[in-house]
Records
---
Amino acid sequence: MPVIRSLGCAAVLLAALALPSGAQARPTDGYHTAARLGTVLDSIARAKPALVKVSTLATSPGRRPVQLVRLGGAEEKPALLILAGAYGPQVSSSEVALRIVRDLARRHGSDTSITNLLAAQTIYVIPRLNPDASEAFFGALRHERKGNDTASDDDRDHVTDEDGPDDLNGDGFITMMRLRAVDGEWIADAVDPLLMRRADPARGERGVYKMLTEGRDNDGDERFNEDGPGGTDLSRNFANNFPWFTPGSGQHPFAEAESRAVAEFVSTQQNIAAIFVLGMQDNLIKPWEGRRVPGIAGNPQGTSAGGPLTAPLAEDNGWFNEVSRRFKATTGWSDGPATAADQGDPLSWAYFHMGRYAFGSRVWWPGKAPVDSAAGRRAPTPDPLADERNTYRWMRANNPAGLVEWAPANGVMIDGEQVEVGGFAPFATLNPDAAGLDSAATKHTAFVVQLAAMLPQVRVDRVRVTEVGPRVYRVSADVVNDRYLATNAAIGARSRLPLRVKVEVALGRGQTLSGGRKQAYINALRGSGGRETFEWVIVGDAGSAVTLTAGSPITGIVSETITLRAR
Ligand SMILES: [Ca+2]
Ligand SMILES: [Ca+2]
Ligand SMILES: [Ca+2]
Ligand SMILES: [Ca+2]
């Protein structure tokens, strides 16, 4: 194995040397195939073996490993989990996760803040949850494939993967296609004709085109590209609000080895305090807004009578708002694309099902394009295509290769009509160039460092001992959380996930407890100095000691030895 690895490195080096100067940047520059991702992670672990451990969390149906990186040494401390690459086409999320690992590992030992952080906390990173789907990014034919390699007969016609997209114009991209049809619902936008929108009959508009993914009806069932290669989109295979019977979501929640491994890891790993998802769901640019939604038959949601929660708890709003404010201050980003639906996604699952503080970033998106105010170029207000128009104009200015202007695909006719092919190039709207990746990674690393410092931590404060009678002592102490986040979000206090803070007094020989509880639990200890006072009456000899411990796997456990004597 090491022989093959060194050969691989040499080959990469030779390829780099052989690149002619001034060579065209390729859209895959800066990105790592599944194989290269594994090689790079292994080399980071080899360089810092005491700090970084890489293991295989699951093996995909395509026999690719889903890696788990543990930063912070062998002992498992209170932890942050970073999950990326569940949505295959968003390869940028894996690349940012890889750069977070690389950057933290590199700075450990020379940057005191990082060294201290990783001495006190563990950071887990799952950089690429759907390696099967992401591999399409590197293929000769570029196609935004979402599913892993699980075989799936999406249209239930007894044949599997019989009709995928086809490159009709031979440009190496799968984009969209349009053809004129009397029952077409689409028209080209008057201002930016690359953009298509549905005709609005209320405004007297008549549809002209049918819009489909580029490709033929390979099996003649009168449906186009309805069942291509690729099974389950792992960003839709988690349990919260699971989209049942939807092609691509999987047979049932956690039907796949990859998603199931995450569920098992988070369920058994009691030290995970918060989960940061780099994916298609956002709650950092636009924070979640918890509100009370009436449940089934008017019963409260989150109860057996009222059905599951569909909105975050309003009690958590303040914290989501503040973390969002800090994310925007750290990244300099103030707005971004709308979040994708919370349907079977890992972010909403982390919060609603696992009771964790969960934060989601869209990672990267085309920035604000300059407004085109030339006559005839003004967009209508309100603009039904605002987001697409911005993306189109940004591409035109920054990445023209990300656009395919509508043009006839030579000689391809469907229903007697000439097929035209066009639209955004695959991957272009989700994945920046190499410099864009590095810049997004720097911002996200800074936020990760900040977020890790917000995780709850407890200490014991104000220990007081008073003698109330011969051999009888009253002992009291506070348990304090100085960090920003509470030991449990409101959702976690309700589900008792993660484990609550336990406060326990251990008696010495000849001592008895005559007041107070040997073990007590704190439902949720708020941050920013939240404290709870505990009191015990202990019978024992002067000078003997009791041990007080407080904490949980997510806060760390502290202990204090208290000597019984009058103070
Ligand atoms: Ca089929
Ligand atoms: Ca094409
Ligand atoms: Ca079919
Ligand atoms: Ca078909």
---
Amino acid sequence: MGKFVQTVLSGAAQLEREMIVERVKNKIATSKEQGLWMGGTLPLGYDVKDKELIINEKEAKTVKHIFERYMELKSMAALARELNSQGYRTKARFDIFKKATVRRIITNPIYVGKIRHYEKQYEGKHEAIIEEEKWKKAQELIRNQPYRKAKYEEALLKGIIKCKSCNANMTLMYAKKENKRYRYYVCNNHLRGKGCESINRTVIAGEVEKEVMKRAEHLYKNWQEKAEEWKNLSFRKQKEAMKKLIKGVTVKEDGIVVSSESGEIFIPMGLKKESKQMHSSRTRGENK
Ligand SMILES: [Zn+2]
């Protein structure tokens, strides 16, 4: 086939594809204007029957609980953690809640009986789960959250820090108390609501990171290829060196075990307990 013919043909095919997409889009828009559910990820709290959403009582309870607790905790990340530790799971694939999952729920107008189509909203045929007043208050709360610059705070020990009791990896999490942010490493088993025996399933990140960096500095001094003094290295270089030198960090009850090529070393630490808020929510979860 000549190149010109080929181009024209593929152009025609492209146009046809676009027209089909457009037709489908219009059909969906029309159906949504009529308040019908046109597919996509089914929201927590509803099931679908003949293109209409019907309330799933058990899930609707969870949705109400989520709105309730969000107004109290005022933090989606903290709420996600609380939900997970209390055994709540999402609708899709029975997954754990993430901050984004909670956000999608709280900002979804479906819960006040509306159907969203891009920026437009239509009155749905379905029953609301949340009273309009309460929903509006939640949206207000989101808007009024103190502005936080989305800066990249990395998990320095990601992939190397483990919970001694479970041998599971630990994940960096944030908590907010009196407008101060705290960073924690949390045992993944605990995070998934599987239960972890360790009293240090939640440890303040800064303290552990500080000890590990100190250990890295020590190892670096004995490192033959070292060219420069540790203190003259940029933080980025120090991090790189740490990742090369430290093979693993295991969080025990009374300290951490740091392993490197030169063996394991135990660093005793009086690891601080988690914040009161996290603790109280967890206790409630266990009583359930
Ligand atoms: Zn654990």
